[in-house]
Write a structure and sequence with these properties.
The protein is an alpha/beta fold. The chain folds into two domains: 157 residues, Chitobiase/beta-hexosaminidase domain 2-like (Chitobiase, domain 2, 2-Layer Sandwich); 242 residues, Alpha-Beta Barrel (TIM Barrel), CATH 3.20.20. It has 15 helices and 17 strands. The protein has an eight-stranded parallel β-barrel with strand order 10-11-12-13-14-15-16-17. It has a seven-stranded mixed β-sheet with strand order 1-9-5-6-4-2-3.
C-alpha cells in the first residue's frame, strides 16, 4: 500500500504536462561545477545548495558552486537559473504568468546541463526533477527519513531537452506545519494556506516561504479576527466593514510577502449577522449572498489600498451554493470551492454531479480564479481508492481543467 505522502506526490505531479525529447546518447558524466547567476535570487541559491547536497549524498563528490563570472568557460557544469544557457522556449510565451513562472526546462548543452524555470521557483522545481531523473532521488515523507536513493535513474538524463508545464496555477496544502514546507518544492507544490490565527509569519515558516518563493494565503476561518468586539460583520453596518478593512491593512503591512488574504466565515450559520435588516433578506436567499456582500465590499476597497493582493473567499458548508443573483467582484478575488469528492465519480455519482454543477455556476457569477479545496483529503480511503482505481483520479483532474478550476489544495493536518 503506498504511503499517504507518496500518494499526494503522485497526484500533484500528475498535474504537469511533460514534453521530453530524446536524441542520440550522451556518455555518463559527473558535473565539475554548479554555475549560478552573478546576481542570483535567494531561491536560486537555495536550489544550488540543494543540488550540491543531494549530488554529494548520491556520489560522494562535492560539487563547487560558482557564479557565472567566476565560471569562465567551465566545462561539464550544471548551469542553474538565469545564466547564459537559459533561453525560455516558445511554449512558455502563450502561458499565463502564474503558470509560466512554475514551468521549467532541463536540457543538454554540449557536455553541460542547464536547469532553469520561468522564475526562481521554477528553477528550484527543475533541480528536484533533475535529481529524481538523473540520480534516483525520491522524497516520500517530509523529513530526512522519507528520503530515498533508488536504482531508478538515467545517468545520461537529459538526452536533449525536457520541459514541464503545470496545468494548475495553485498546487498546495491546507494548514501545513513548518516542517512540511521544505518538502513543498520537492513535490512541485507552490501554495500554502496558513491560518491567520497562527499569527504573523515568522521564524522557520517564513524562512522557507522566502527560500522557495512560495505563494501564501493567510486567513482560513477567521470572521472573528476581522469582526469588531461584540459585533458580527454586517453589510448594513459600515462600521463593522471599516473595522475589517483596518484589520486587513494591519495584516498586509505585517506580512508583505503574502499574496492572498482569505476572509472565511467560521463553521456554521450563526457567524452571520442576525440584525433586523439582515433578517429581512429574502427567505430563499442563500448564505453565500450575505457572505458575498461583505467580500465584495472588502475586495473593492482593498483594490484601492493594495492593488497587488487578492482577497480569498470560500464556498463551503452552508454557503457552498452560488448566489442566485449577486455577482462577484472578480478583479482581485480568489474562490476556494470546498469539495471533498475524491473518487466520487464512481462512489457517489449524484454528489459528483452536484459538485460539477455548482462549480460551473460559480464561474458564471464572475469568478475568474477558483481552486478546489480539500479535493484530495489525506485519508486511508483515498490511498486505498487510488490503488484500486488509479485511472479515476486522472479523469477527475481533467474534468476540473475543462470546468475552469485554477488549482488544487489538499487538506493535511499536523500529525
Amino acid at each position: 500500500m503506498p504511503s499517504k505522502a507518496l500518494q499526494i506526490s503522485a497526484v500533484l505531479f500528475a498535474t504537469f504536462t511533460v514534453i521530453d525529447v530524446h536524441i542520440g546518447a550522451m556518455r555518463r558524466w559527473t558535473p565539475n561545477a554548479i554555475v549560478i547567476p552573478d546576481n542570483a535570487h535567494r531561491t536560486e541559491r537555495v536550489a544550488a545548495d540543494e543540488l550540491a547536497h543531494y549530488i554529494a549524498l548520491a556520489t560522494n563528490v562535492n560539487v563547487h558552486i560558482v557564479t557565472e563570472s567566476q565560471a569562465g568557460n567551465a566545462r561539464k557544469a550544471i548551469w542553474l537559473g538565469r545564466t547564459k544557457c537559459a533561453q525560455l522556449p516558445r511554449e512558455f510565451e502563450r502561458l499565463p504568468h502564474e503558470v509560466m513562472r512554475d514551468a521549467f526546462v532541463i536540457k543538454r548543452v554540449g557536455n553541460d546541463v542547464a536547469l532553469y524555470g520561468g522564475s526562481p521557483r521554477g528553477t528550484l522545481f527543475a533541480v528536484y526533477r533533475y535529481l529524481e531523473r538523473a540520480f534516483g532521488w525520491r522524497w516520500l515523507q517530509p523529513d530526512a527519513g522519507g528520503e530515498s536513493l533508488t536504482d531508478e535513474y538515467d545517468p545520461q538524463f537529459p538526452r536533449y531537452r525536457m520541459i514541464e508545464i503545470p496545468h494548475f496555477a495553485i498546487r498546495g496544502l491546507v494548514r501545513p506545519w513548518a516542517g512540511v514546507q521544505r518538502w513543498y518544492a520537492k513535490l512541485g507544490l507552490n501554495y500554502a494556506l496558513i491560518p491567520v490565527k497562527w499569527g504573523n509569519l515568522s521564524g522557520k515558516r517564513l524562512e522557507w516561504i522566502l527560500d522557495a518563493s512560495l505563494s501564501v494565503e493567510l486567513g482560513e476561518h477567521c470572521f472573528s479576527v476581522y469582526s469588531p468586539k461584540g459585533k458580527m460583520l454586517c453589510p448594513h453596518d459600515i462600521s463593522t466593514l471599516e473595522h475589517a478593512l483596518r484589520k486587513l491593512n494591519e495584516l498586509v503591512r505585517a506580512n508583505p510577502m503574502v499574496e492572498t488574504f482569505g476572509i472565511w466565515p467560521e463553521d456554521g450559520i450563526f457567524v452571520f449577522c442576525q440584525c433586523e435588516q439582515c433578517g429581512k433578506f429574502h427567505p430563499l436567499e442563500t448564505l453565500d449572498e450575505r457572505y458575498l456582500r461583505i467580500i465584495n465590499w472588502l475586495a473593492e476597497k482593498a483594490l484601492g489600498h493594495h492593488p497587488k493582493i487578492r482577497i480569498g473567499f470560500l464556498a463551503y458548508n452552508q454557503y457552498r451554493q452560488p448566489p442566485r443573483g449577486a455577482k462577484v467582484f472578480a478583479k482581485n478575488t480568489v474562490l476556494a470551492y470546498a469539495a471533498p469528492i475524491g473518487f466520487a465519480s464512481i462512489t457517489d455519482r449524484k454528489r459528483y454531479q452536484r459538485f460539477v454543477h455548482g462549480l460551473r455556476k460559480w464561474l458564471k457569477c464572475g469568478v475568474k480564479r477558483i481552486w478546489v479545496y480539500e479535493y484530495f483529503n489525506c485519508s486511508d480511503d483515498i490511498v486505498r481508492m487510488s490503488a484500486l482505481f488509479p485511472h479515476v483520479i486522472g479523469r477527475e483532474i481533467r474534468m476540473l481543467l475543462r470546468t475552469g478550476a485554477s488549482g488544487l489544495m489538499s487538506q493535511i493536518d499536523n500529525p
